[in-house]
Write a structure and sequence with these properties.
This protein is of the alpha+beta class. 22% of the residues lie in helices and 32% in strands. The strands form 7 sheets. Strands 8, 9, 10, 12, 13, 14, 15, 17 and 18 form a 9-stranded antiparallel beta sheet that branches.
Length: 640
């Protein structure tokens, strides 16, 4: 059993792609966590298939390293704003944070968010200026921007007096003074963690107490909770009391971000018995018979464990701790049963009951996900932190063999005390070369974005900061990459709710909708590509109502992409000339979800991503559109 004075619990927080996971790889190598002849992949903490493909951290993970007789518990947190719900929970298990900053980009939106959460909890930070070996790196500017961010977020004098290390996680070295110290090894970083991270304030002789911060699921053990033991000692098989709590809200306020009065109440107390206990060593869980204060443990024994539950001894009368704050979702969409002509051909055509069972399993571990009861037998509404948060879930369901349809994301609005509509707002940061700043400003302004800051780096890049409604960002990422020729960088974070910004048009181009079914022909696609951008290739199967391309004009265009060239006995001198068929645009799940309009769906199968009209029959679509215009007229004719 490691003494409490030799334990350090720290979380690594950073903006996406600032080198957080690569830094953990360097810590493992320096600490000798793996034997010398072990074959270890890069970004070893990204053990999820989608994490390795996309190069991002989706779920928070726990690992340990040993250095100089000290046991360092490290929690790797996601860097994307859509998965910030993971960060909010795990910060309750640590005593300090490693704030990783890119030496070139400096503090970014997610840096601000996670640092704000850490400072509110009273945690101190060790600032790690990473990637100082890169070209255009400016460690001093990154440090100054970080210090300004601390002051802006209201850090105390002790929090603002943070230690700093400089280095490169990829090359495996860090120093305290980049101008004088030798660039070799990770000792300065380990020394900063041991010297500046306080050990857990825990009494192993007090009654046992812990709070659940993370959940996972095992088909063999059931629901497993993870948290830090705050005090006391517990042996496997001993009786515990699981206490559930909730925040008390003011009943007169109906806003989604209504201020909490700071009071909470106990909603239940249930006896439980621990059946399994684990601790983490390296990357693996090790089952133990006893755990004590200061340890970060995994515990199984109750099927009803939830985030924020308190586990204590029966003799203490069911002690309780304040609930953990989990931010509310801002974006929602509907999942529908696939009713297309190709349903069941490329995967498993699931029913709504099977979709609901899969979503219930996801809710056990994904606390930021909300699932509302179906209002129709063929669809269910899910809500999350952003488009990527929901797209990752859909991608996982797709890889499990499911087929389903997805609607366009919609923001979740709220109502203030005066009855005015509120909508979620985002802080948008864009870095682009100078020659593209005009088109960026034009497009963001059309989406109700308000410019709040402009910074010229002097190296041909300019940074813009906007305040923009979340609606304005839906469907913009693809157009942004096209406008900036792939050279722009954009990131955003939710900053709360604000007044409704009015109507906006997020897509100004219509769809090319197929009128016939069959295999697409090169002859027909070559004629259609002058009308827009195609989504399908020759010989690809198409059905009526399927969208085969993006029209160059705002309205939809019915077309026949399966029409064949008429065969005759007369040869033409230009018959064998190359038709010049262009390569189609390949839609990914995220790009398809962003692109579709309100009356369109994304058909998701294990093999294909298709876009289609919600109503496949052309005549039924026309009648539905006329009925909509009758019920909700968009233009009023003035009377004389």
């Amino acid at each position: 059993m490691t003494p409490v004075e030799k334990i350090r619990n720290v979380a690594i927080i950073a903006h996406i792609d600032h080198g957080k996971t690569t830094l953990i790889d360097a810590l493992f190598r320096a600490a000798g966590t793996f034997r010398k002849n072990a074959r270890v992949e890069e970004r070893v903490m990204d053990n999820h298939e989608l994490e390795r493909e996309r190069g991002i951290t989706i779920r928070a993970k726990h690992c340990t390293v040993e250095w100089g007789g000290y046991l360092i518990n490290i929690i790797d947190t996601p860097g994307h704003a859509d998965f910030s719900g993971e960060v909010e929970r795990v910060l309750s298990m640590v005593d300090a944070v490693l704030l990783v900053i890119d030496a070139n980009e400096g503090p970014m939106p997610q840096t601000r968010y996670v640092l704000m959460r850490a400072l509110r909890l009273g945690l101190k930070a060790i600032v790690v200026i990473n990637k100082v070996d890169r070209r255009n790196a400016d460690p001093l500017a990154a440090l100054n921007g970080t210090f300004d961010l601390f002051i802006e977020l209201g850090a105390s004098d002790a929090q603002a007096d943070f230690p700093v290390v400089y280095g490169s996680g990829l090359q495996g070295w860090f120093v305290r003074d980049p101008a004088r110290d030798e660039r070799k090894g990770m000792e300065p970083l380990f020394a900063a963690v041991i010297g500046h991270v306080p050990h857990p304030k825990a009494d192993r002789d007090a009654p046992f107490l812990m709070q659940i911060s993370t959940l996972t699921w095992s088909d063999y053990f059931g629901r497993i909770g993870c948290g830090r033991v705050l005090q006391g000692t517990h042996r496997r098989g001993d009786e515990l009391v699981r206490t559930t709590t909730r925040w008390m809200r003011a009943p007169a306020l109906h806003t989604r971000d209504a201020a909490r009065p700071g009071e909470w109440e106990v909603t239940g107390a249930h006896p439980v018995v621990s059946t399994h206990l684990w601790i983490t060593r390296g990357l693996e869980r090790r089952e133990v018979a006893e755990v004590s204060a200061g340890d970060i443990i995994w515990i199984a024994g109750s099927e009803d464990l939830a985030i924020g539950d308190t586990l204590s001894l029966p003799a203490s009368g069911g002690a309780s701790l304040p609930p953990l704050e989990i931010g509310e979702p801002t974006v929602s969409m509907f999942l529908l049963v696939n009713n297309g002509p190709f349903a069941g051909e490329e995967g498993c055509a699931v029913t709504m009951r099977q979709i609901m069972e899969r979503l219930e399993r996801e809710r056990r571990v994904n606390v930021s996900l909300r699932v509302e009861p179906p209002d129709r037998p063929d669809r269910v509404k899910i809500s999350g932190r952003g488009e990527l948060h929901l797209a990752i879930l859909i991608e996982e369901m797709r890889r499990e063999g499911m087929e389903l349809c997805v609607t366009r994301p919609e923001v979740i609005t709220a109502v203030d005390a005066d009855g005015s509509i509120l909508e979620p707002m985002e802080q948008l940061v864009i870095d682009v070369p100078d020659e593209f700043q005009g088109v960026v400003l034009e497009k963001v302004a059309a989406r109700r974005g308000e410019l709040t800051g402009r910074y010229d780096s002097g190296s041909g890049l300019v940074r813009f900061e906007f305040r923009i409604p979340t609606r304005g960002l839906i469907g913009y990422r693809g157009g942004f990459m096209t406008d900036t020729r792939g050279l722009g960088i954009m990131s955003s974070r939710c900053i709360g709710y604000g007044p409704w910004c009015g109507e906006l048009v997020s897509r100004n181009r219509g769809s090319l909708v197929s009128m016939e079914a069959g295999p697409a022909t090169a002859y027909s696609l070559e004629k259609l590509q002058s009308r827009g951008v195609m989504f399908v290739a020759p010989m690809e199967r198409i059905y009526a109502g399927m969208i085969v391309g993006e029209h160059s004009r705002p309205d939809d265009l019915p077309c026949n992409p399966v029409k064949r060239k008429r065969l005759t006995n007369v040869r033409s001198s230009t018959k064998e000339l190359d038709e010049g068929l262009k390569a189609p645009r390949v839609l990914t799940l995220e790009s398809a979800i962003e692109w579709i309009a309100g009356d369109e769906l994304v058909e998701v199968t294990p093999r294909s991503i298709r876009v289609r009209k919600a109503i496949l029959d052309a005549e039924k679509r026309k009648r539905a559109e006329r009925r909509k215009q009758t019920l909700y007229p968009t233009r009023l004719t003035p009377t004389r």
